[in-house]
Fold this protein.
Amino acid sequence: MKILTLVVFGAGIIYGATAFAGSIPTAANDVDFHQFPAELVKLGRDLFFDPILSGNKNIACATCHHPSLGTSDGMSLSVGEDGVGLGESRRVDMGNALSAFIGSKFRATESPFDRYLAGEDAVSEEQLAGMDLFYGKTRCSTCHSGTFQTDHNFHAIGLLQLGPGKDDYASDAERGMITSEQEDMYRFRTPTLRNVSMTGPYGHNGAYANLEDIVRHHLDAVKGLSSYDRSKAVLADDVAANDWKAMDDFDEVMRIAEAIEISDVALVEDEIAKIISFLGALTDEGAGKRGLGTPNSVPSGLPLDATAPPS
């Protein structure tokens, strides 16, 4: 049975279902990943970095998901187009090849937390305290559950909308736009928290550059939405675009707020610091550095993206 909490936001009323935390997972191992032949992984690597897959042949998968940038591009909104920097039995499905490379290259399973689950004394006292909060009082593991800290499900947590959106009003109701079900409006898939300390900006749209800010948003989603500081997003300075159209629309902000389904959590500053410390224990410093590196060239012969991070 759901226990409903009532919160007033402006002129709107928000109902949030109280969540219940999940259990600590078992250690990750090879059986948690799809297995692919080495030659398919290598082909996937070359395709991943090859701009030939894009319409104008100038943007590769790695343009926005580069290993040197935490498998991201470090931006809340990617620049995209015009940006610079970053026989029958032998047929190969490009999607399978890309999956083979990503599943092999982007693993993050050798973190202090993984070593702790394997029986090693690998986490600090502060991280252990944060883990107890994560899997207990804060109920983080209700959604961030399982081996990779995700239930792979969709939830509405009241993140603001910025950027072009998915309709004429610059809004993005995500899951609801696919199912057309009211209960799915503004629900986004739970991301894994592996290497979360290295993969900002945070939120489905990169609303928060800082990890602590997205943690605080989860503690009081209505407050996070209503008092959002737009300087917390990482946006390109030289792109002429109104990225705040949705947030300037009071009715749209209210719709986002009314969809919130996570409950508030009261934490003191010391507890927030412990949660962030535990999230740091999910960092695998070798992720993206093991196995195949960046290719020197790609099958199409097109130039690769530069790997310098955004300024």
Notes: Residues 94-105 form the longest helix (12 residues). The longest strand covers residues 4-9.
